[in-house]
Amino acid sequence: MLLIDIYKKIRFDLATDRIGPDIPFTHWKLYFHKLMMKLCKKKFQSFANTAQIRPGAYFVGCSKIKIGERVIIRPGCRFFAESTTLETSITIEDNVMLGSGVSIYINNHRFDRTDIPLIDQGHYPAKEVILKNGCWIGANAIILPGVTVGENSVIGAGAVLTKSVPPNVVAAGNPAKIIKRIG
Fold first, then answer.
1. CATH code where residue 133 lies
2. Which residue of the set 27, 33, 109, 123 is catalytic?
3. Where in the chain does DSSP place strands (E)?
4. Is residue 16 part of a domain?
5. Surface-to-core class of residue 86, CB atoms within 10 Å of its CB (0-12 exposed, 13-18 middle, 19+ buried)
6. pTM of this structure
7. Domain membership flag for residue 36
């Protein structure tokens, strides 16, 4: 019985559209650069040659994620990109910096009906998240569905980004607000 369960887990880990600590039969590859690159090139919609994913990061819906040049995904980051309606759910352009623990979501649970329990209401439609060239997302920031972070913008650590921000601004807080312009 145990050997059958292990075999099933290995098959699931190799076939699933996920990468993360709960997928141990592929996650270990993130510790070795060549194996990390091979895994990411296979799993992601696009994955640049100079991008890196550090062990401890978690991705659901890898095939809907594009990651650009010189992007490093740090431990504790969580990207939830699984979608049946979007061709691309999360786009991270070139030169984007991400702190540890950044979370990105492309959809949210419905909560607009009072006649049925929240758990039975399903999800709102998925909306793409885009991180433009050169932006910086601080540690433990949360980016919600439909948000675009403009070029060279900075999102403060711990911010909850509910709306898109233009290029060259600093946004922080919960909900995040623009606190200054850059340049």
1. 2.160.10.10
2. 109
3. 18-19, 46-47, 52-53, 58-60, 65-67, 72-73, 78-80, 90-92, 97-98, 103-105, 129-131, 136-137, 142-143, 148-149, 154-155, 160-161, 169-173, 176-181
4. no
5. middle
6. 0.93
7. no
CA angle in degrees (0–180, nearest 5) for 106-57-125: 10
Domain with 78, as residue range(s), is: 45-181
Per-residue pLDDT of the chain (183 residues; tens, 9 = 90+): 789 999 999 999 999 999 999 999 999 999 999 999 999 999 999 999 999 999 999 999 999 999 999 999 999 999 999 998 999 999 999 999 999 999 999 999 999 999 999 999 999 999 999 999 999 999 999 999 999 999 999 999 999 999 999 999 999 999 999 999 998
- Asked whether residue 17 is assigned to any structural domain, the reply reads no
Residues 53-96 have pLDDT tens digits of 999 999 999 999 999 999 999 999 999 999 989 999 999 999 99
Burial 111-123 (b: 16+ CB within 10 A, else e): eeeeeeeeeeeee
- The number of distinct structural domains making up the chain is 1
Distance CA 79, CA 107 (A): 11
27 annotated active-site:
no
Helix (H, G, I), strand (E, B) or coil at 30: helix
Establish if 90 belongs to a structural domain: yes
pLDDT score recorded for residue 183: 87
